[in-house]
């Protein structure tokens, strides 16, 4: 996934949690029959944590992928640079 797409997914997760929090608070009030603070207020912090994990792991994967690509490129250069793999033209 591209970085922009990951950012959009994180923004969507946070937006949905912001929209769902008032509904969760209303539902908790109806169930309890009184006003109290509970886990429904943790929807937004959990969404922020999930977004942070998504972005962090995605960046780590990108870094690993770029490093592996660089290693492969260096190995290719090394193979072509050895005397065994060089083609010598017969002159004469």
Task: Write a short abstract of this structure.
With 92 residues, this protein is mainly α.
Write up what this structure looks like.
The chain has 92 residues and is an all-alpha fold. It has one domain. 75% of the residues lie in helices and 0% in strands. It contains two helices and no strands. α1 runs antiparallel to α2. The longest helix has 39 residues, at 43-81.
The separation of the N and C termini measures 56 Å
Question: What count of domains describes the coordinates?
Answer: 1
Which percent range fits the helix content?
A: over 70%
Overall, the morphology is rod-shaped
SSE string, helices as H and strands as E: HH
Structural class: mainly alpha
Strand content: under 5%
Q: What is the mean predicted local confidence, pLDDT? A: 83
- Total strands: the figure is 0
Please give the radius of gyration in angstroms.
27 Å
Task: Report the major sheet.
Answer: none
Low-confidence stretches: none
Number of helices: 2
């Amino acid at each position: 996934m591209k970085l922009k797409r990951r950012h959009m997914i994180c923004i969507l997760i946070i937006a949905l949690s912001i929209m769902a929090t008032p509904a969760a608070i209303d539902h908790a009030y109806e169930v309890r029959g009184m006003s109290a603070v509970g886990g429904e207020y943790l929807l937004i912090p959990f969404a922020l944590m999930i977004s942070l994990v998504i972005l962090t792991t995605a960046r780590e994967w990108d870094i690993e992928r770029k490093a592996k690509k660089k290693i492969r490129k260096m190995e290719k250069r090394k193979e072509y640079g050895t005397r065994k793999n060089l083609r010598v033209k017969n002159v004469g």
